[in-house]
Amino acid sequence: MAAGGARLVIGDVAAWLTTAAHWQGEEGIPTRLLEHLQYSVIALVIATLVALPLGLLIGHTGKGTAVVAGIANSLRALPTIGLLIFFVVLISPHVRGKGDAAYLIPSEIVLVLLAIPSILSNTYAGVQNVDPAARDAASGMGMTGGQVLLHVELPCALPLIMSGIRSATLQVVATATIAAYVSLGGIGRLVFDGQNQQDYAQMASGALLVAVLAVLVDLVLALLQRGIVSRGISRRYAVTTATGEAHTADALGGRITEAA
Amino acid sequence: MLDYARANQDDILRWLGYHAWLSALPVVLGLLISLPLGWLANRNRWLYAPLVSIAGLLYTVPSIALFVILPGILGTKVLDPVNVAVALTIYTVALLVRVVADGLAAVPDDVAAAATAMGFGRFQRLVSVELPIAVPVIAAGLRVAAVSNVSLVAVAATIGVPELGQLFTSGFQLSYVTPILLGIILCVALALVFDTVIVLTTRALTPWRRAVRAS
Q1: Which of B48, B91, B180 should we substitute to test contact with A (largest number of A Cβ atoms within 10 Å)?
Q2: pTM value?
Q3: How many CB pairs under 8 A join A and B?
Q4: Complex ipTM
């Protein structure tokens, strides 16, 4: 398939990507991109809704951190593709719905499961890393526990929370590609259809699009992060990372999970 | 499950060996590449930001994309396991460059100065003082790399590379849960073995940490 060497392949990919027919219709690139984003957003919204409040609670109360850290770490060792196929084979025979539901529901479950650990562990680590002096000052000013959490701990933890969400997003976008293997849409379709048709140009085009999508989505989230993180905090955060002290195991692990 | 394992013993053992090889080799290669790179990034601070940004960018690319794109760049066949090994080496380097640089940066200045005062040359000081002190930090990065590599290798089964992921793909084709569960268990076990090896090696390389704990 790729025997023609690098230059020929790059030319083939360019030709495939610039063919107008590949950008139109139900199997066109825009449709696949939208499907891919749709799968990813659904999973990320659910995962954030579960993991963010839970992480804030755990970080604020300090209860259950050992259990959560243990679970998050062991989830990392699970092969994502195995988990995905396991849930599809287990659940899809029991789903009666139109269209993709039989594959979509188990895939979304796996994507949510994958996204939760990095958001959860970064959230509670972020809250726990808040300078105790800031917390004390807030209580001293008469803030209630809830107010301290919302007005002090949450803004201070935001950089770490966002980096958890970015890790989770990258992992979800990557795994959603593999979801095409179990008959879902998305850009992964190009990769696996290309493989079935022995069409390397299509495969490589799909791979390239996924890579670009992942980088772009991360860029958008980085800009969002810059927008919502208070400037005083992001400056302080930058100082601590420059001296290399802010790389906790969780921050490190958070960056890792994304490579599915 | 045991019956299934016994019936397909030869295949499974072959896949297991291949899987172990494909996940371990990139960790070793990645470490060998990122030690000098991380050292450079630590010595020349202006190199740190670009190296870490490039590493972050490489880490952003999904593995399946890398598995498919690499043949076009390397001129290999799509199913060539070399693609998987190269892709995982790239991820490992992307992860470890920063870890090595930060680990070396965390060596206290007075320790480095003391070594120099004792007559250590620059290279000797790096090998016998600074690297040993950075071992725990580097090992933490290695553990993450090794464990996630096991999971990433399995992804390559979707494009036909023969390893433990074959248990997932054949389970999917047959709608049969047993091989899938077996594959998950073997992958987790393999990750656990790698993790334990790294932890034990780290302990052997840093005897002073035990001494502190014991006292």
Answers
A1: B180
A2: 0.82
A3: 181
A4: 0.85
